[in-house]
Amino acid sequence: MKITITEANKYVDQQITIGCWLANKRSSGKIAFLQLRDGSGFIQGVVVRDDVGEEVFARAKALTQESSLYVTGIVQKDERSPFGYELLVKDIEVIHESVDYPITPKAHGTEFLMDNRHLWLRSKRQHAVMKIRNEIIRATYEFFNKEGFVKVDPPILTGSAPEGTSELFATKYFEEDAYLSQSGQLYMEAAAMALGKVFSFGPTFRAEKSKTRRHLIEFWMIEPEMAFYEFEDNLQVQEQYVSHIVQSVLGNCKLELNTLGRDTSKLEQIKAPFPRISYDDAIKFLHEKGFDDILWGDDFGAPHETAIAESYDKPVFITHYPTSIKPFYMQPDSEREEVVLCADLIAPEGYGEIIGGSQRIHDHALLEARVQEHGLSEEAYKWYLELRKYGSVPHSGFGLGLERTVAWISGVEHVRETIPFPRLLNRLYP
Ligand code: 4AD
Ligand code: MG
User: Fold this and answer.
1) Which of 137, 193, 252, 354 has the most neighbouring CB atoms within 10 Å?
2) Which of 172, 223, 183 is nearest to 206 (CA)?
3) How far, in Å, CA of 18 to CA of 68, rounded?
4) Whose alpha carbon is nearest atom 21 of ligand 1?
5) Minimum-distance ligand to the CA of 299?
6) Ranges for the Aminoacyl-transfer RNA synthetases class-II family profile domain (predicted)?
C-alpha cells in the first residue's frame, strides 16, 4: 500500500513520497510552507530554497490551492505542529493544476458552502467531522458485535409506514404504491424473532417540512431490536452503547476533536448510567421553569427538550410518554394505560433527541386494535401482526439518529455538516 500522511510517524528521518493536495500555502523569499492533505490527514511541508534549489522552489511558490501533487520529503518530528511531524520537502511533482478553486481561506456564507459541498468536504473542519462520523460507525459495529448482535439489513422500499403516514416519501413500485423507509423497525422485529439480538444501520427518509438544525430529509439510523428485552433492559443497552461511542471518539479522534475546538471535558463525563425523568415529571419541571404553554398530552418542542437537558451533564431519558402522541406499536404501561413503555434520549448541550425507543406490543389482539385505531391497512401489516401469532415474546428496541449524534459529539451546530451530502428542505444539489 502507498504511504499516507497519518503513517508518516513510522518514517521519521526517512524519505517518503505522498500523493496529496495543496490545502494552503505561505512563502517568503527563502522558505515556503505548504499545508498538504491526502485524505488521511494534514501535514506541513517545508520547502527551503537553499536546500531544493531555484527550480523546485519556484515550483513550490507557484502552486495553486487544491492542485494535486506528488511530494517527496524527509519526515521530521515537530513539537509545534498539532500532528507532531512535518515534511522537509525535497521534490514536488504537479499531477494536475487546480485553477480558481472557489473555496478560498477567507470566510464564506453557508449557502455558498452548501452549493460547493462536493468541494467543501475537503476542508479541515469537514474532514474532522467525517472522521468522527466514521469512528462512531466503527464503534457501533464493535459494540454490537461484542454484545452478540447480528447485523440485519431491512428493506428501503416498503409498503408500510411505522412512524405515521404524514412524512412519507411515496413512490411507485411498478403498479403498486410504495414508500421509502422511515425506519427499519418493523422488519427488525421480525429479525429479532429469528436471530435474537439484531441491529441495522441504514438510510431513512422523512418528508418533514422542518427547517431546523436537527432535521434532515435523508438521515442514517442505527436500529437495534432485542427479543425478551423489556423496558428497563432496553435503556441499559442504550446507555452502554452511547457511552461506548463517546469514549471511542475521545480515544481515537483526539486530533479531530482538537481541530473542531470541542470541549472534551463535557464528553469525558458521558458514562453509563444516564439519568431518567418521567414525562409527568418533565411537564412539572417545565411548568416550574415558566413554560406555561405546555400541557399534559403535548409533545415537547426543541426549547422544552433543551430546558430539560440543561439540568444534566449526561444524556437524559424522558420516559413514559402519553400513548396518544406515540406510534401505534408501543407497549402500554400495565399500571397506567395512558402512557407507554418508551423513552427518548435527549443529548446535552441543546442537541436534542438522539434516540427514540420502546418496548413493543407483543399481544396480538392489542396490536390489532391499535392498527385499526390508527387507521392503518390490515393487509399491509398482516405479516407484522403474524409475528404475534407464533411464539410472541416481549421485545424492545430503539433507533439512534447518526447525524444528531455526530453533531453532538463533534460540537457542530447544524446537522448539515454531519453527513457528506445533506438532503435538506429545498436542497437536493449537489
Ligand atoms: O424517534 P424516531 O422517529 O424513532 C423511530 O423511528 C423508531 N422506529 C426507532 C426504533 O425504535 N427502531 O427516530 C429515531 C431517531 C431520533 O431520535 C433522531 O435522532 C433521529 O432518529 N431522527 C432524525 N435525525 C435527523 N433528521 C430527522 N428528520 C430525524 N428524525 C428522526
Ligand atoms: Mg422520536
Assistant:
1) 354
2) 183
3) 11
4) 401
5) 2
6) 130-430
How many A from CA of 12 to the centre of ligand 2?
Answer: 50
**Which grid coordinates are listed for 177?**
404504491
pLDDT tens, N- to C-terminus, the chain (430 residues): 999 999 999 999 999 999 999 999 999 899 999 999 999 999 999 999 999 999 999 999 999 999 999 999 999 999 988 889 999 999 999 999 999 999 998 899 999 999 999 999 999 999 999 999 999 999 999 999 999 999 999 999 998 766 666 789 999 999 998 999 999 999 999 999 999 999 999 999 999 898 999 999 999 999 999 999 999 999 999 999 999 999 999 999 999 999 999 999 999 999 999 999 999 999 999 999 999 999 999 999 999 999 999 999 999 999 999 999 999 999 999 999 999 999 999 999 999 999 999 999 999 999 999 999 999 888 889 999 999 999 999 999 999 999 999 999 999 999 999 999 999 998 999 9
The cell numbers describing 97, all together, are 493544476
Ligand 1 within 6 A of 398 CB?
yes
Compute, in angstroms, the gap from residue 165 CA to the centroid of ligand 2. Answer: 15
List the domains of the chain with CATH numbers. 5-96 (2.40.50.140), 117-417 (3.30.930.10)
- Do the beta carbons of residue 318 and residue 371 sit within 8 Å? no
**Ligand 1 center–CA 183 separation, angstroms:** 8
357 lines ligand 1 (CB under 6 A): yes
Largest CA distance in the chain: 85
Ligand whose nearest atom lies closest to the CA of 423: 1
